[in-house]
Amino acid sequence: MNISALIMVFTWQGLLKLRRLADYPALSGYLKELFQIAGVRETTNFDYIKRHYYFSHTMINSTQIVPVWPIMELESAHGRENL
């Protein structure tokens, strides 16, 4: 699993509970930067990752309900050059 998928799983599972991912500028910028690297976008399927996570971990999600996730603009400017 690459770090971008891990960030998304943590977000979906509610481990980033206090705020939205967009409210963590360094983390969301890092995810955007990773997603914009050649080859990452083409080989990362967040829908598959999310469905797999929620259907294969029945101890965590016994209902196997897959939450709806807002559309993230991962192709927008990441702003990490300002860090």
From TrEMBL:
Domain of life: Bacteria
InterPro entries according to UniProt: Glutathione-S-Trfase_C_sf (IPR036282), GST_Omega/GSH (IPR016639)
Gene Ontology molecular function, alphabetical: glutathione transferase activity
A GO cellular-component term linked to this record: cytoplasm
Name of this chain's protein: Uncharacterized protein
Species this protein is from: Brumicola pallidula DSM 14239 = ACAM 615
